[in-house]
């Protein structure tokens, strides 16, 4: 049969089209593929055929029939498994209704909507082959009504109460297995004003759906008002041609037949194989588990700018959406420092006409890659994005989760796959819906959630454009985001004004200047030697220098320098010549250096311990004409053209008076060699002007320096680290103390040397200092000023310093050798979370620039460039390298900048924060990772003293992180702690605990030695691991591997292979979870845990015995009697105290009839656990119950707070197709439902709760005495000491006449700590109960109440359940004595017996 003849869309009637599509969908998938292929060959587009209605009915027309999830629903189902109980995917709406409202009509309108749309009668469940949606014929829906108008609250307070209520409703989670996933709350705030809070879960609705819902609600309300004769006739809506489940079945059937693969081909080509995480300028590392919290900053583009943007769109024959998407990409590229950005864009997903009237989750997400070629113009970018938008629309049917599966990005529960920034553009609806005489006003609710790192939402409203930027508060502070957000409208103005400019020339105009400048200063002297000469003239006899070879006054030191200068001059050495100094730290070394300078020559400091060949290389490269050596140098190299002179001979000469030669400020002061990336050293030539400016500038920072304090130099002479104290001491007229080399790395000798002198200041490398302090304590510190530099200083060091020496002033000092010792300083404060490197010294400028030399705004990372008086002349004899690093300053014609290669960011106050070397960044599984931030997290762990994280390449050439640390924490514990705190890509592949971090001669961490040490450790570790684990952990690994093999359909799974890198995806992961749960013993893991511990070995290690679920449901279930009966057990849910002691009398009474099993609080047995909601608890308890009893009928009983939990459990069991034969509520807690205070987070007074708790469980307590002792603490934060004392007092309370009252019963047998912990559990559960909402239930309820229980509680329960209990009994008892009252026990036993007999007869109770 020709498909053209039977499937021509234009000629075949619609009924035939539907029939053809129905036949197509009924075919097996392989035949559907053939059918689709032939249709395409004949020019027939099956995708244009309509969706047939009643597809779910064709499967099974009964209530609760299962249908597959749509791909969009499946994505949210996965999210729920990752973050159970989250409210992040709620869709809240809040409106004010002004006028006379008919509440009954409004409720009827909602009921009709629920009846009309199957999506609102749908629940979601885990089926044998994946998640399913279950449509119910009848789902009760009520509008919760509350009347606040008569409570006497002021208008402002009432508005705040409404806001709090709306925020709580917006985030209150749904249980996906209980329909409806919609709730409405109506609050009367005045006689003619109501607030309606409407919340739906995204899995059954989207923004389009909310519009439909409002339209149908207003229409239905008018209709019900009209039926009462008070309005006009409203025509009924036409019947829906299809329902959402039909769409889900059609979508899968059509895409599985080859259409999905066809469209995926396009997206693979567009998005490629590399999917890096967008490196946004966050304020904090990404948490392992996002909270979903967010905030929004709102701006406007005025009419003039909006007009220009629209004109630009018209020029390109496109829409404003395309222009704004391109501009958003430019903005993201600028703040992230990348050349390509992927942006998530929601699309309606309702291309099929029959889906337009439906409520359901149709919206899809497309990933648009925005290429940012710096040479291209914005005009060209808009044209590119126009073409891509058209192409994307033609391939818009690929569900986002299928795109993720196809592209296989690195999976991480902490980050959204494929994109982290979202964009959405809408055009505002001008018409506000009317509601039969009511005026509807949207209510803006403060408080946000954020599903992505950044989300830009733009709204065209008339002539203007509203711009809203939402950001994840896990990652960003408002102080960072808001200035960046304000730069976006300015960027739009630039792009609209000059769309033909190169993107490289487009900068984000921030609120601050381009440069951070140090103060401008003209010094009194023009050369450092003039400063020294003045010190000699002022106090010639004052101590100048003390070293291992003696202590000399200023006059003596200067005289020795004259001898050196004279000796060199006689050998023809003069201005700009170089003289090498091969000497250790000593007074002679200082004299030799000064002598070289008196000539106008430059000195080249060399370290005596370096190999002779290396020394010869440096001397030759420097072109030194003379080499001055100390007497104890072991090996003196011989270099042609360089004369070797012994310093002892020079200093022993006759006294001379050498007149300093006139020098030019640009002449060289010294040449210091730094290591180069090629292994060849580079000689940095520093001018005398630069050195003079540095010395004057840095000493100006060291104010309040005691007159008698000296300065200690403890670092190598071959680097410029020590120049701060070397020249600072001589310039300030302070004694310079030179520590012997052998003392510098021995903590004990270091401390002893410091104690023997009055050291006011020293400069040292942070890692060197930390090692000294951990070994010898605060005696290694100077008295007044500590200067740290040479490497990044961390907050942990600052804490250590503040603890041991709080009065010590700490100066963080930064600067490459090429910028003369240092250029930035920061006076550390105790509250520095991340120690900045600070602000520029006088006459120095700092720039933070991107790759195109545009200035970046505060908070954004960029490369640091240095300008001004600090710059060195360049590299000796290497003009090419000099030109590469010393580049023209675009803001100051004729000036230069030094490109540091360091990544920094500038704070809002101008302070600069060091982020790391640009070449230190590494990309791991798509993440751009800063090893320094990982090291910071490692140091923050208890039991870790110091840590370094390095990058190494594995056998495949892939980068990996290696962490070395010192301290007591085991490697396994360190890895576990990092895994729980950081994204998986940030966790080092290997952690090695070391006795000490190896250091170089000048105190920096020796990275080569560290890598060697870790490699040695790895070799031993790998050899040990070859055999693999054994025992219980080995069996667990084998079991996990077997499940993976089955699910992934592979024969081999390595213990270190990552599930998501060997073919696994989120859907297959759910199959793994289900199979492990069904095994013996059942293993309960979450999708988040599987993503965090992605290998067999790591997952097995994470599943400790306490986390495996024993066959009886784990420690949650407690057997309360020894019944041997085979009857189904009665499961009793704990009250607020968390224990199940009180059910024992009932359990004993039923011992001959059935087992009684208590469900106790997990928080009671696991102090680290914290429940998040009663619904979440109910889900966990159902899992435990079904582990012990896999199928119904089930019998549930809840006393006190256990009542609402038992109700939630019953609904979950019923929604999953199980029978609940008995649901008993014993004097149940009834949460606020209607007419009560809004359910916001509890702020109860803990002292009142404690008094109530102790009086309740310990009858001997004298309430008056205890109340008086607690009164001073009322309204204050929980005080653990007061809590312990109160419990002690209650346990030892005396009765009348002063006689002690013996504590009796289960609770009294517990000690103080147990009772205190139980109170914490009670307080927490009460707070959760305050915000819980009961749902209508179809499960029959048996209720018992004590005589004094208020009748309104009973009525409130009936309203919340939408039905009265099938049985209500009243018992003469108190609340606490009810479970022990014989009349109640007998009545419960009777009721359970009767419903069991009904079940035995085969009568359905509730399923």
Automatic annotation (TrEMBL):
Organism of derivation: Pandoraea oxalativorans
Record carries keyword Phosphoprotein: yes
Region annotated Disordered, chain positions: 46-66
Cofactor: pantetheine 4'-phosphate
InterPro entries cross-referenced by the UniProt entry: AA_adenyl_dom, AB_hydrolase_fold, ACP-like_sf, AMP-bd_C_sf, AMP-binding_CS, AMP-dep_synth/lig_dom, CAT-like_dom_sf, Condensation_dom
Protein name, UniProt field: Carrier domain-containing protein
One function term, GO molecular function aspect: phosphopantetheine binding
GO aspect biological process, one term: secondary metabolite biosynthetic process
Residues of the Carrier domain: 1031-1107
Biased composition (Basic and acidic residues): 56-65
Keywords on record: Phosphopantetheine, Phosphoprotein
GO cellular component: cytoplasm
